[in-house]
């Protein structure tokens, strides 16, 4: 009786569902103005649906045995892995030459010290009395007659033996014969003690003057 009651309840539920669907269709048909077509369709559906109270539903599948192992899990295959070799940017290394070395400045050697100057020569000295080298007795006769006087300046050069080698008039008396008489007497009478340099006798020069004055009787 329980199984029959369940079958009857299932049929009722199906009938109710069919009736509800028919109401929905009829309402839709009435709204859209297709009531007549809907009525014909409902009639066809009602005719087509046949409730068989004697038909029983199939029995449920038996439960799986308790000792049976569980089905293996479905594992999705791993996605293909693409090994793309990364492109490495090749860096070209350029060897930079080192900067040139600064030029070596070669300083010239300092100049050699000049040799020491030789010591100055020791000056020579006149022999005798220079005032007696030219006297009034040497007065030229013509200048004496014309009563010409004057001062003759001279420079007398001598060698390492002390003998005069040259006479130069550095200041004239105004009378050529008086100047000439001065150098003539000096060259013949003057003598010198020569000076020395590094222990050796050397020549030099001697400068002075002769005053020509007419003697008084």
Automatic annotation (TrEMBL):
GO CC terms, sorted: plasma membrane protein complex
Subcellular location field: Cell inner membrane
Classification lineage: Bacteria, Pseudomonadati, Pseudomonadota, Alphaproteobacteria, Sphingomonadales
Bilayer topology annotation: Single-pass membrane protein
Start and end residues of each stretch annotated as Disordered: 50-140, 160-179, 192-217
Membrane-crossing segments per the record: 13-36
Domain of life, source organism: Bacteria
Family membership noted in the UniProt record: Belongs to the TonB family.
Keywords noted in UniProt: Cell inner membrane, Cell membrane, Membrane, Protein transport, Transmembrane, Transmembrane helix, Transport
Gene Ontology MF annotations: energy transducer activity
PROSITE patterns registered for this protein in UniProt: TONB_CTD (PS52015)
Regions of compositional bias (Polar residues) in chain numbering: 82-92, 163-175, 195-210
GO aspect biological process, one term: transmembrane transport
Coiled coil segments of this chain: none
The protein's name in its UniProt record: Energy transducer TonB
TonB C-terminal domain mapped to chain residues: 124-217
Main location: membrane
Biased composition (Pro residues): 56-81, 96-124
InterPro entries: TonB-dependent_transducer, TonB/TolA_C, TonB_C
